[in-house]
Fold this sequence. Notes:
By secondary structure, this protein is mainly beta. It has helices spanning 12-24, 88-91, and strands at 111-118, 122-131, 137-145, 148-157, 160-162, 177-186, 189-190, 200-211, 219-239, 242-261, 264-280, 284-290, 301-308.
Amino acid sequence: MLYSRPAALIVLTLLFGLLALAACGGDEPANEAAIATEVVAATEAPADAAPVEATVATEPTAAPPTATPPTAEPTAAPAEPTPTLATAGETAALPTGDCSNAFYPVIEGRTLRYANNIPGFGVTEHAITHSDVTDTSFTATTDLGDGNVLTQTWTCSGEGLLQPEFSQLPTGDQVTLTIEFVESSGLTIPAADQFQAGATWTTRYVANATLSDSGAGEMLMEQTTELTHTVIGPETITVPAGEFEAMRVETTGNVIAVTSVGGVAVPPTEIPMSFVSWYAENVGLVRQEWTDLFGAGSEAATTELVAIE
């Protein structure tokens, strides 16, 4: 989902499988590659912030007029500390340049763990680690497990943050899928002051893909993804990492693919997209939900923040 995307990875392999199926006129999808949902945005505030322990001071007891030795009041046990996900001290560690964004905080070396629940594929996890953080860029490394590690370098400007690719993904053993992104424009995450109800922004990606011959010939595809994001307003959302006051962002758009199979052009295919993301200030992306994955009428696919390390 990628997004981060978001966050987390959108099920791009599934999308290419659907488009290939439409292009080839088949009735059942072919063996698809491993998938994971992206979250466009990810958090960097630690889950184990250093708490401040409270203690109760001991009042000395004055000596009585008799010779009886004075007795001290017992000292109360210190109160249990309450851990928090983010504190002012931690958010101060954000970069000071264009990459500083309270709704998508990136901190050098911090890892965020997410759980993905995709109908038909079960529950998986992925972890995103940020590194090489500067005023104008940072690297996001996504660990999908089983040795699949994906790396992207985001760019930062005064207008916001841009992910260089709509998603990344490992490929399966049955097919060879090569994807080259030739255009990325707009914003993935706008500047923090744009996280207000009614604010909108757009993102556009163009990618060329080659799918190895699966019987009908090699498939070549140009895929254009256009998305519009709208801030709805604050909501309280609960995920495994805790309860957050987060801004709800609704995204709609479509993917248009121009395809040829075995050198024969097929009619363009258009697949709609819609998903919802929740971003908490000083935390980042805490949940993403695809209510109608690629317009297929499927159950909701979700990505939720589990922990920050």
